[in-house]
Design a protein that fits this description.
The chain is 60% helix and 6% strand. By secondary structure, it is an alpha+beta fold. The strands form 2 sheets. A 5-stranded mixed beta sheet has the order 1-2-3-4-5, with no helix packed on it. Strand 6 and strand 7 (569-571) form a beta hairpin. The protein is globular.
Length: 602
């Protein structure tokens, strides 16, 4: 072995050990963060500190794991620091926008934050690494394409290896449990083992995947090329579908499209499919594909124009009629990206010269634009909640939407800090109705269930009534659907059943409306049928409805109960059932024949 080989071997060992150390450290940090969150101690009690720690610990180590041997050390440290700063800023803003003492609204650890950070780092990393390796701001397009494809393969292999590791551990635990040894099962159930072991094994998998794909680069490219070619042959079909759809619009008009109330999302999905398939046909651009695919890619690029135009019109109509919402802000973001691709691909399809060559700078520019848009969406620059709150409040204050129809609860529950601050401001609105509704909604702890529309009233004809031969009271059947008498039954009534029984011994039957193992008790009052109690059969080990069908439902003997009186207010002491105790005089499990219902307050 010469000096060069020895140096290479030492470098390989150092790289492997560094990756393993990063993975182990990541697992330990995530374990510690999980424990403080579980114990509700510092820093978990400070959302704007805990959120960036968690997001950075979960996402940022993936960068050095992937690029340890591909980027110079100083450049890798600098890029990792920038990535950590971006992730922290987005997490801090999410925590600031959603955090409050009772944790209402969007939480700082909601899935969109993790997805956005992962997407941002993935896109940005694949812009940074090829440029750094090439030593210039923009590398050859084939380098970007090759790195993205290779890293996707590496990620898949690493996740598969880590999953297989855990499957083997579960298998080992099950095997040893058969002979009475439960040590492995207890070990893998401990988070102190699970987090570090997962981090370590994932890092090991990444290292092996990197070594494999570098040693078998030609094989990886071959498999990737075959997959993309197969995918590309769906492009002519998509062109026919999109062309047929657009050709049908003059005969059907736009009304059927608008009636779906999802026109913009469907059209954006079609545009995304065309963009993906065009890129599957183009690949790295070094070799033009089959002539059929070349013409299909040109046609698809031109079809993007009417599809994206229709999307913009559909989105403009909804925003003009109803203002911004978080979903519409996100749709506008997707539309901006789609417009950029459409402009670039149209130029690529119509420009003379090398086939679709302008596609390359278009993809790189739109990747950078996507990074910028992700940062804007998860900071105050273009936070969907902030923009939506501003739009909706402006519509209310300008009179475009009357106070009676304004969704004040959107501000309270669905728009984080921005909505709560706007609701606080509306309490001083000169319109007394607006101010009153803002004060009422401000103190609500939970979003009420939506009112039941008449066509949502259950179809009681499909409900089985017990005892056999009984019928639901006419007053119950004819009750106004906007009164809360639906319980857990859905609008169809399918899967519901009812029991008529005198719960409170007043001589009149109450209605127990059940779905699954939950029964809601309804009593007739001066205001109609009202839900007064609920019971569950979570301890039931027999066939509940078979016993009901047999008529084996009765009330247990009354039990005394006293209320706790504090300051003249009566507080009910609700019994807590630990486990599934057996009541004296009732049949013993596992063959019960009488469903028990605790007596109501007297």
């Amino acid at each position: 072995m010469d000096a060069t080989d020895a140096t290479d071997a030492r470098t390989a060992r150092t790289t492997a050990l560094t990756r393993l150390a990063i993975g182990l450290a990541q697992g330990i940090v995530l374990f510690l963060l999980q424990k403080v969150d579980e114990a509700k101690t510092w820093p978990a009690t400070q959302p704007m500190l805990y959120a960036p720690l968690l997001v950075c610990a979960l996402m940022v180590p993936l960068i050095p794991l992937a690029a340890l041997s591909a980027i110079r050390r100083n450049a890798l440290i600098a890029w990792s620091a920038v990535a950590a700063a971006l992730a922290a800023i987005m997490a801090i803003h999410a925590a600031w926008a959603g955090a409050q003492p009772d944790r209402l609204g969007a939480g700082p650890l909601s899935p969109p934050v993790f997805i956005a950070v992962a997407a941002l780092l993935f896109i940005a990393h694949h812009l940074v690494q090829p440029a750094e390796a090439a030593g210039k701001p923009v590398a050859p397009y084939a380098d970007y394409f090759d790195l993205v494809g290779t890293n996707v393969v590496r990620l898949f292999l690493s996740l598969a290896f880590t999953g297989a590791f855990w499957l083997l551990l579960f298998l080992a635990a099950a095997l040893f449990k058969l002979i009475g040894i439960q040590a492995i099962q207890k070990l893998i159930g401990e988070t102190a083992f699970a987090f570090p072991a997962t981090g370590l094994m994932f890092a090991a998998a990444v290292h092996m995947a990197v070594q494999l794909t570098e040693a078998r680069a030609g094989l990886v490219r071959g498999v990737r090329t075959v997959g993309l070619v197969l995918l590309a042959w769906l492009l002519p079909l998509m062109v026919v579908i999109a062309g047929g759809f657009l050709a049908s619009l003059p005969f059907t008009g736009l009304a059927p499209l608008w009636s779906t109330k999802a026109a913009a999302s469907l059209l954006l999905s079609a545009a995304a499919a065309l963009i993906i398939l065009i890129n599957a046909a183009y690949q790295d651009g070094l070799e033009p594909p089959n002539p059929i695919l070349r013409w299909a890619a040109r046609a698809a690029s031109l079809l993007l124009i009417p599809i994206v135009t229709l999307t913009a019109y559909a989105l403009w109509l909804r925003i003009h009629q109803y203002g911004l919402t978080p979903d519409r802000v996100l749709a506008t973001t997707y539309l901006i990206v789609a417009v950029g691709f459409t402009i670039g691909y149209t130029l690529a399809a119509t420009r003379p010269g090398a086939w679709m060559k302008p596609l390359e700078p278009t993809n790189l520019i739109m990747a950078a634009v996507s990074v910028g848009l992700l940062i804007a969406l998860f900071t105050p620059i273009a936070d969907p909640a902030r923009l939506s709150v501003g739009s909706q409040v402006e519509r209310l204050e300008s009179g475009k939407v009357p106070a009676e129809k304004f969704d004040f609860r959107f501000l309270r529950f669905d728009s984080g800090r921005y909505g709560r601050e706007a609701l606080e401001g509306l309490k001083a609105n000169p319109n007394p109705l607006v101010a009153r509704r803002a004060r009422e909604v401000k103190v609500e702890a939970f979003r009420p269930l939506p009112p039941i529309r008449p066509n949502d009233k259950p179809d009681y004809s499909t409900i089985t009534v017990y005892p056999k031969g009984s019928k639901l009271p006419e007053t119950f059947l004819n009750q106004d659907a906007n009164l809360p008498a639906r319980g857990r039954c859905d609008g169809s009534g399918v899967g519901c059943y009812a029991v008529l029984i005198d719960v409170d011994a007043d001589g009149a039957n109450e209605v127990l409306l059940g779905s699954g193992g939950v029964l809601d008790v309804y009593k007739l009052s001066a205001d109609g049928w009202r839900r007064v109690a609920r019971t569950t059969s979570y301890c039931w080990v027999g066939d509940l409805q078979s016993n009901l069908k047999a008529g084996a439902a009765r009330m247990g003997p009354p039990e005394p109960r006293r209320d706790l009186i504090i300051g003249g207010h009566a507080l009910a002491l609700t019994p807590v059932q630990e486990g599934c105790p057996h009541r004296p005089g009732a049949p013993a499990a596992p063959d019960p024949d009488v469903p028990e219902l605790s007596p109501p307050p007297r």
